[in-house]
């Protein structure tokens, strides 16, 4: 075998005495895709960026060997290092909306790489830019090259970012969470593209927090936690026979294909509430009543709801004849790509958006359309949890103030008055009482989402609308939050409307699933069977996207 | 781009509206001032003008006609560029302003350009130079923004003229004469612009697209010129329209200190001599400069930040 394109031996990175990467060794051969999997803060991203000398300000990087295509990287002078970046090693970051300059057309960014690493003239660079855009699967490259990241869809701009990353014909591509924040079909497309690059002989180092993402494309998987590699093997080995406890937890956290009611996270030992939960459910045993159980009460009914937005001269149908029923202890999963009308449906359900036609009833009484005044007293019955917990809190308030505000329905933000209720609420969602004195910004993503669940529970609701509640979380944290939601539903007889673009999450959590496309429910049925034999082509496309 | 042309037409219409409004307000405001305009024309209450003289002036200036007619006549004259006759200078106001305008505009444009250069340099240096440079930069900006024009002018004269003797203490014709007045106006403005730019420069430098650019092999210098400076410039460009207006009012002090001719000095003497027509004319010209400059910064904003094109139709 020839010289590997990347060889790392005993890589260590520390920031001001704090060691974040310790003793990492790995190799990537030409035409091979190696994946590093771990949660945020595990050091996987820093390790990958060290290859480019971009570990970050104040980083101390040491290694007995760190070579790219035989050339040592450490101690390389600035000019040589810059030839390496973009030339020998291409870098693909996550979220092209912010990883590409929002003020410049994407064609210019690609052209810049070409100008730096090739000796093509201006006309040839233009030609090559279009070629690259076509190569990454973008239609109408002439138009795309002139558009800015903000004018492209999530998938399009991620492809453009990849085009910029491979413009210098690198021998190694480092892809740092390249599919995070993308819808699944789009994600699948991006991963296929990386697979093609690998097949053409490029070495690919793929970084992800999501095992299921790397499963289809990686040749070898390295699992990283706390700055150390703990497991290595083919995806099949790592998935089927994980050895290290962390890997086992990571594999168990993947919701896709796990039956409803199965624990995803390891049972905690310190929380009384969680232990109670374990006894009642029995880990691993599905206990949910089946769909045809007649004992379940109808809480919310949606009848033929329609909503059209007028944008300029265009009409956008966000909801078209949408009907469904929410029952106690039941979850309806609403899936579909971004822009399919999921969030509009949620807003109508929450009474934040009036339907143009149709109606929503709550506990048999009218709910929407209805004047807000008539609805307000019953608002506590319907709670909501959103994707971005951080922006749904006032950043200047402590968690205690947020909950006090919700508990007293806006009459006070002084946590002292309702201290006991706050402590109880925090306990319910598995948080320590002292979290009440902290500000949302200083909490982890999982803690924030627990606080927003606590807030949603303040009015003793019957229905919870969960709008992408775990999309912004690492898989392992996502597992804990999903387990929490599952327990709360059984303890409190809640009805859930779960909105998600992640089919795995939807299949794990839902009793019934409805597939939304352009505002219409195009397919629906029990979660166990809806994707077994999807009728609608769109539903089939969704299913194919999650198949490994 | 048809969208751009439409936008430009709309904005130009806005400029005309503002000009009409300021002309109208000035016209009626002056009629609300107590006293007889004819008497003011003849030199104020102290002039002891006889009734015949007053009557003659009224007829000459059309003051005996109904207010609406006077207003329309005034607007008609404005459209044809006639701003009236200056009593104190004994020549048409348009001519008087025309003689002074060039000097003031030169001063303002020089000061604005100088302020941008100073602000950019200071911001770029203090952002990249670590914590100490950051503290020095922010301190300098604060002091610069707080310094009054008349004091700064005096200090600059003492330093460059009296001590070093390399620049003239009063404004002389030619490029050398504009240096000290422009610097006086530019320093406080650079303080303001620098503060705004440094914040946005720092935000831009921490953005992920800078990492992407580095990972592409761009040098720090190119990243600064091609990416971060442009992001930093957005708020400063927006401020420049306002800054230009403040430069013209700042010119009143600076032109007086440096004995430099210009609109500011004319305005000062016109107010002292109660030359109402001249004051009106200067106010209108300043309003015109203000609105045109705002239009220019809006155009610049669209060039620097293409995202605004999608919104501002």
UniProtKB/TrEMBL annotation, chain A:
Q: Point to the regions of Low complexity compositional bias.
A: 282-296
User: What Gene3D superfamilies does the annotation carry?
Assistant: P-loop containing nucleotide triphosphate hydrolases
Keyword Transport applies: yes
The alphabetized list of GO BP terms reads: peptide transport; transmembrane transport
Q: Domain ABC transporter: where?
A: 6-251, 300-543
Query: What is a single molecular function from GO for this protein?
Result: ATP hydrolysis activity
Q: Which UniProt keywords apply?
A: ATP-binding, Nucleotide-binding, Transport
Q: Which InterPro entries match?
A: AAA+_ATPase, ABC_transp_ATP-bind, ABC_transporter-like_ATP-bd, ABC_transporter-like_CS, Oligopep_ABC_C, P-loop_NTPase
- Region annotated Disordered, chain positions: 257-296
Q: Which family does it belong to?
A: Belongs to the ABC transporter superfamily.
Descriptive protein name: Peptide/nickel transport system ATP-binding protein
List the lineage, top down.
Bacteria, Bacillati, Actinomycetota, Actinomycetes, Micrococcales
TrEMBL record, chain B:
Q: Which SUPFAM superfamilies match?
A: MetI-like
Q: Subcellular localization, per the record?
A: Cell membrane
Enumerate the spans annotated as ABC transmembrane type-1 domain.
101-301
The record lists the membrane-crossing segments as 7-30, 101-125, 132-160, 172-193, 232-258, 278-300
GO MF terms on file? dipeptide transmembrane transporter activity
Q: By its UniProt entry, which Pfam families does this protein fall under?
A: BPD_transp_1, BPD_transp_1_N
Keyword Transmembrane helix applies: yes
Which key words are in the record? Answer: Cell membrane, Membrane, Transmembrane, Transmembrane helix, Transport
Topological type in the membrane: Multi-pass membrane protein
Gene Ontology CC terms, in alphabetical order: plasma membrane
What family does this chain come from, according to its entry? Answer: Belongs to the binding-protein-dependent transport system permease family.
Please give the name of this protein.
Answer: Peptide/nickel transport system permease protein
This protein's species is: Promicromonospora thailandica
């Amino acid at each position: 075998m020839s010289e590997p394109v990347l060889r790392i031996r005993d890589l260590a990175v520390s920031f001001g005495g704090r060691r974040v990467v310790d003793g990492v060794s790995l190799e990537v051969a030409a035409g091979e895709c190696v994946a590093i999997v771990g949660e945020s803060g595990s050091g996987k991203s820093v390790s990958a960026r060290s290859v480019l000398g971009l570990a970050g300000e104040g980083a101390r990087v040491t290694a007995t060997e760190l070579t790219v295509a035989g050339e040592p990287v450490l101690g390389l002078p600035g000019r040589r290092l810059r030839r390496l970046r973009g030339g020998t090693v291409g870098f693909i970051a996550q979220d092209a909306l912010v990883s590409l300059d929002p003020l410049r057309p994407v064609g210019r960014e690609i052209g810049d790489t070409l100008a730096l690493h090739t000796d093509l003239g201006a006309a040839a660079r233009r030609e090559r830019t279009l070629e690259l855009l076509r190569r990454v699967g973008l239609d109408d490259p002439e138009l795309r090259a002139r558009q800015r990241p903000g004018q492209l869809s999530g998938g399009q701009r991620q492809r453009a970012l990849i085009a910029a990353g491979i413009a210098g014909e690198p021998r190694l591509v480092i892809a740092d969470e390249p599919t995070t924040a993308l819808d699944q079909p789009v994600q699948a497309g991006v991963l296929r593209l990386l697979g093609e690059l690998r097949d053409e002989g490029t070495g690919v180092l793929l970084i992800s927090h999501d095992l299921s993402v790397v499963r289809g494309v990686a040749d070898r998987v390295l699992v990283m936690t706390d700055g150390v590699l703990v497991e290595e093997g083919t995806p099949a080995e790592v998935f089927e026979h994980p050895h290290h406890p962390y890997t086992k937890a990571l594999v168990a956290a993947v919701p896709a294909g796990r039956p409803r009611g199965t624990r995803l996270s390891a049972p905690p030992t310190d929380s009384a509430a969680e232990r109670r939960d374990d006894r009642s459910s029995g880990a691993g045993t599905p206990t949910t009543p089946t769909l045809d159980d007649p004992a379940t009460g109808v809480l919310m009914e949606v009848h033929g709801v329609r909503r059209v937005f007028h944008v300029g001269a265009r009409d956008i149908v966000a909801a078209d004849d949408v009907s469904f029923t929410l029952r106690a202890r039941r979850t309806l999963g609403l899936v579909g790509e971004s822009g399919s009308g999921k969030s509009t449906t949620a807003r109508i359900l929450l009474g934040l958006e009036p339907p143009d036609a149709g109606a929503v009833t709550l506990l048999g009484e009218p709910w929407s359309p209805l004047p807000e005044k008539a609805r307000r007293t019953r608002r506590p019955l319907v709670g909501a949890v959103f994707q971005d917990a951080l922006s749904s809190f006032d950043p200047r308030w402590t968690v205690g103030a947020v909950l006090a505000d919700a508990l007293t329905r806006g009459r006070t933000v002084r946590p002292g008055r309702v201290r006991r209720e706050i402590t109880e609420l925090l306990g319910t969602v598995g948080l320590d009482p002292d979290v009440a004195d902290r500000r949302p910004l200083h909490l982890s993503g999982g803690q924030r989402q627990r606080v927003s669940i606590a807030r949603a529970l303040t009015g003793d609701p019957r229905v919870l609308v969960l709008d992408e509640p775990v999309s912004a979380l690492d898989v392992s944290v996502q597992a804990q939050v999903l387990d929490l939601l599952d327990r709360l539903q059984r303890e409190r007889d809640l009805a859930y409307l779960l909105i998600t673009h992640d089919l795995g999450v939807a299949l794990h959590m839902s009793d019934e699933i409805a597939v939304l496309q352009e505002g219409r429910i195009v397919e629906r049925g029990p979660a166990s069977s809806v994707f077994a034999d999807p009728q609608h082509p769109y539903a089939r496309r969704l299913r194919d996207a999650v198949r490994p | 781009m048809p969208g751009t042309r439409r936008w430009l037409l709309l904005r130009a219409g806005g400029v005309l509206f503002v000009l009409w409004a300021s002309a109208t307000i000035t016209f009626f405001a002056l009629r609300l001032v107590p006293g007889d305009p004819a008497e003011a024309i003849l030199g104020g209450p102290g002039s002891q003008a006889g009734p015949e003289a007053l009557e003659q002036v009224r007829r000459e200036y059309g003051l005996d006609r109904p207010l609406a007619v006077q207003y329309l006549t005034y607007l008609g004259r404005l459209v044809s560029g006639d701003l009236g006759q200056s009593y104190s200078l004994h020549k048409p106001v348009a001519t008087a302003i025309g003689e002074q305008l060039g000097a003031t505009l030169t001063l303002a444009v020089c000061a604005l350009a100088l302020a941008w250069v100073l602000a950019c340099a200071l911001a770029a240096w203090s952002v990249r130079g670590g914590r100490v440079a950051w503290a020095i930069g922010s301190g300098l900006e604060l002091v610069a923004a707080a310094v009054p024009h008349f004091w700064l002018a005096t200090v600059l004269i003492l330093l460059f003229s009296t001590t070093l003797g390399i620049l003239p203490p009063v404004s002389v014709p030619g490029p050398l004469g504009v240096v000290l007045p422009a610097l006086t106006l530019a320093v406080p403005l650079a303080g303001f612009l620098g503060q705004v730019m440094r914040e946005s420069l720092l935000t831009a430098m921490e953005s992920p697209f800078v990492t992407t650019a580095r990972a592409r092999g761009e040098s720090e210098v190119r990243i600064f010129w091609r990416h971060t400076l442009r992001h930093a410039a957005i708020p400063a460009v927006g401020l420049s329209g306002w800054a230009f207006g403040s430069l013209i009012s700042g010119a009143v002090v600076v032109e007086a200190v440096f004995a430099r001719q210009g609109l500011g000095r004319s305005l000062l003497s016109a107010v002292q001599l109660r030359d109402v027509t001249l004051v009106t004319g200067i106010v209108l010209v300043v309003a015109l400069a203000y609105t045109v400059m705002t239009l220019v910064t809006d155009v610049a904003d669209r060039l620097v930040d293409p995202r605004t094109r999608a919104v501002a139709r």
